[in-house]
Write a structure and sequence with these properties.
Number of strands: 8
Strand content: 15-25%
Order of helices and strands: HEEHEHHHHEEEEHHHEHHH
Strand order of the largest sheet: 3-8-4-7
Radius of gyration: 25 Å
Largest sheet: 4 strands, antiparallel
Number of helices: 12
Helix content: 40-55%
Amino acid sequence: MLEVKASTGNSKVYQMIDFERYFSWNKDGYKFIITEVFEETKTKIDNRGKHNQLPFIEEMELLLIDMMIKDKDLVISDSRLMLELCMINPNYHKYFMDNEKLSELLNMDLEYIVDFYDTTNGTFKGAIETVIKKLEIKKLMLHQSVYMVNHISMPDIDNVSELFDYDECTGLLKGKAIKPIITHRQATKEESEAILGIERRTLVDEFNCDNVGQVIRKGMGNQYYTRVNKLILDHLSIVKFYQANKFIYNIHELARQKYKVLNQHKVKEIQDLLNLKVMIRIDKNATNRYEKAIGLLKEYDDKIHRIDDDYIDNINTLSNNLIDIHNIDGI
């Protein structure tokens, strides 16, 4: 009907974006359902001159505002935020620390998986920082980076008799199983300083790295976090910790913005579009890396896998399994 050639693979993803000029659609599993055909074709958007901004920043901003309107005390980790904004699907973090298992499941060399996580994770975290700065500049909210912890403590015992049960038959005292109290809360200033110190010393002294990214690329992420968690438990009685984004905002001011018209149907459409744009960007970046590697072969010995004919297809396979929100069970 549109008199265009049917596309497959990555070309179809770009084609679906262009089709939004002619009709609106929803994705249901592998089905594309047309919901409205427009009487007038929308003008094609010219993105020239906007290459420095990721193409899904606007959708991230809309969805983050929607999240804040729904939760007046939003404290959330980067990984959870990426999931809630539909930048990834749950498989992304499921295999983030278990690249070997993903390599086995997909029958794919490990170097492609390390490459995928190395390139996408930095992009996603940078996108989150960009959106946060945009909202701060608009004076819609303030942002703090905080540690959240599960702190373990024992119940207060006023009398030693509370530690025992008396057995009237035998006349013996039997020790009670006292369960610890675990409190989920924001870390104190002193705890935050101590956690930072433990992480840094472990990073430099035990793993000979300057940043966590280097540890991950060495395939030692599990060992690093296991060691850090052990030290933090020993020194601070904290059984779990993670870095989180804490947002401070006036929920009534957010509601007065134009974004207040967002309804559940609109939010779903934006989530689908954002997810699709993320996959398009990953495909484009993979193609650029492949072409650059071909042109700089001698200087690219440490990433020689990028000149393989299968490189782009492997990156797209990972994108389909770890990013596509409609393909969570694909693996």
